[in-house]
Amino acid sequence: MVKLMKNTIRIAVAQMEPLNGDIDANLSKVKEVVTSVNAELYIFPELFLTGYLIEDLVFKLALDLDSKPIKELQQVSNKHRVGIVLGFPERSSMGYLYNSALAIDYRGNIYIYRKRHLPTFSSFSEGRWFKSYRGSFNPWLFGTIKVGITICYDIFFPEIFRKYMLNGVELFINISAAPDTSIQLFHILSRARAIENSAYFVWVNTTGFIGGFGFGGASIAVDPLGNILYTLKYYEEDIRVVEINFDNIKKYRIERPLLRDVAFEDYYLLFKNALRYEERQ
Fold first, then answer.
1. For residue 131, is it within any domain?
2. Tell me, what CATH number does 139's domain have?
3. Rounded distance, CA 163 to CA 262, Å?
4. For the CN hydrolase domain, which residue ranges apply (predicted)?
5. Residue 227 lies in a domain
6. For residues 46 and 89, what is the distance between their CA atoms, to the nearest angstrom?
7. d(Cα 143, Cα 6) in Å, to the nearest integer?
8. Neighbour count for residue 184 (Cβ, 10 Å)
9. Residue 56: its pLDDT value, please?
10. Are 126 and 118 in contact (CB under 8 A)?
11. For each of the chain's 281 residues, which pLDDT tens digit applies?
12. Are 201 and 193 in contact (CB under 8 A)?
């Protein structure tokens, strides 16, 4: 159970293989992990409730926020007094779909992060089914811990994480369905995002072989200096409980005062140049 004032947290990194298209089976996996592993926050991969490669079946399986599976997850969180983060296809009130992360706190309260950057290149076609979210976003407050949640390809865009850091985030979570060929890139970027924001970073990847894709697992937890605390197994389901002490953040941010040294003029120049770029297109 999470207390309102707490300096440490036990996080279960649940690198699991979803059963493609079977929400009930994947819900059962979540419940099994929560009841068998001692932690306070449980993190599952991108689109875990349905599986990642369900293609047009996503139009049938996408969920409203008041749907039965979401309510079941709220009940699990509330019953066990834990937090849960996982991915699912969200059906908006306007009818279009988002690739979303659902975060539920120990009271059953819901927070939603919607993926901003959809890979629609090479073998990826997310833009065919999902809408890219362009609205504002804020940290998830889990007890007294500010958490910055992102999804897979978002990790390549550092401005998201700096925005979170400037809002007091000390823990980043990226849920992912990355193929084995991209694992080293995600490891490098997880470490970079941790270092440049003096924050902990947990990357939780899918595992298994689906539709010709090999999802390589190899999830990691990284400290604010970029050191990898744990690497989970390649190509296998694996669960590792990581204990994070947020007292360390204060020390790291004094030793490397990134927030003090941020030059807000850089953001102005970036925005100004982006407008010029758009005008040239």
1. yes
2. 3.60.110.10
3. 12
4. 9-246
5. yes
6. 9
7. 8
8. 11
9. 95
10. yes
11. 444 446 899 999 999 999 999 999 999 999 999 999 999 999 999 999 999 999 999 999 999 999 999 999 999 999 999 999 999 999 999 999 999 999 999 999 999 999 999 999 888 899 999 999 999 999 999 999 999 999 999 999 999 999 999 999 999 999 999 999 999 999 999 999 999 999 999 999 999 987 778 899 999 999 999 999 999 999 999 999 999 999 989 888 888 888 889 888 888 888 888 888 777 76
12. yes
Distances (CA, A) of 121 to 67, 125, 127, 177, 263: 32, 7, 9, 15, 34
With b for 16 or more beta-carbon neighbours within 10 A and e for fewer, the 72-93 pattern comes to ebbebbeebebbbbbbbbbbee
Token reading at 247: 């007292």
Spatial CB neighbours of 89, under 8 Å, sequence gap ≥ 6: 47, 49, 50, 58, 61, 62, 63, 97, 98, 99, 100, 129, 130
pLDDT given for residue 173 in this prediction: 98
Number of C-beta neighbours around residue 164 at 10 A: 25
Domain hosting residue 36, numbered range? 8-280
Count of domains in the chain?
1
Q: How many CA atoms lie within 13 A of 118 on its CB side?
A: 16
Chain-centroid distance of CA 2 in Å reads: 20
Q: Is 2 a domain residue? A: no
275 within domain boundaries: yes
